[in-house]
Amino acid sequence: MAKQTFLNLPLDKQERILDAAKKEFTRASLKDASVANIIKDAKIPRGSFYQYFDDLEDIYYYILEIHSKDIKQRLSKNLVNYKGEIIKSFIDLYQYILIKVSSEENELYFKNIFLNMDYKTERMFLPNLEDNLNEIIQLVDIDKLNIDSRLQLIYIVEIIEAIMMRNLIQVFQRNLSKEKNIEILIKEMLLIKDGIYKR
Is the C-alpha dihedral spanning 29, 32, 38, 40 positive or negative? Predict the structure, then answer.
């Protein structure tokens, strides 16, 4: 993550460095990216880069963390707005993520991320036990569900997240239209709903 020296920089300089890094991660995967390209584009000395971040991985995950916080806040907001409806909340979240990752300014960046995804990157995109999953679980209306405990709800959330992640990766692997991709996700989510909602 970013060092305090980076966080103390003026916002415009922070943005310039992050934009340069995002440009590099659009061009190349993390393993093929180059600090030299980032510092050249950001117009900073090599030594300064290492005052701000430990290495390429550090800045890579810092940028993802910015997106991650936004996505997780959106899910919490959805659960409040939809009164604890888990399926509606996740469908809305998926559509939000899909718009974000397929926008013209972000598409190539996220394509590189999703086609080179590892476990750590995947866990950053959706709520998990390492961060605010317990908080999110508390927002779900469990009375509507055919489950015995909140632990079972954690398993359900993990299944939903796996489906969402697979569908997001397929956006880039199969080059599906957003409309077709959302249609597939909604069908899968409705199957889950049939299995977990009380009749």
Answer: negative
The closest alpha carbon to 86, from 31, 158, 11, 5, belongs to: 158
d(CA 38, CA 43): 8
Q: What are phi and psi of 145, to 5 degrees?
A: -105, 150
Please, are residues 182 and 147 in contact by the beta-carbon 8 Å criterion? no
> pLDDT, tens digit, for every residue of 115-164?
888 888 887 777 665 566 778 888 999 999 999 888 899 889 889 999 99
Q: Alpha-carbon distance 141 to 159, whole Å? A: 18
Which tokens in the block code for residue 9?
A: 């920089």
The residue whose two tokens read 């599906």 is 176
- Max Cα separation, the chain? 63
Instruction: Return all residues near 160 (Cβ < 8 A) that are at least 6 apart.
Output: 86, 90, 189, 192
Residue 105, SS3 per DSSP: coil
124-to-47, 72, 75, 113, 188 alpha-carbon distances in Å: 28, 9, 14, 12, 23
Task: Report which secondary-structure segment, H or E, holds 155.
Answer: helix 150-173
Taking residue 35's Cβ as centre, other Cβ atoms within 10 Å add up to 16
Cβ–Cβ < 8 Å for 60, 33: yes
Please say whether the dihedral angle defined by the alpha carbons of residues 111, 115, 120 and 122, taken in this order, is positive or negative: positive
Provide the pLDDT for residue 163. Answer: 94
Phi and psi (nearest 5°) for 101?
-80, -20
Q: What CA–CA distance (Å, rounded) separates 199 from 192?
A: 13
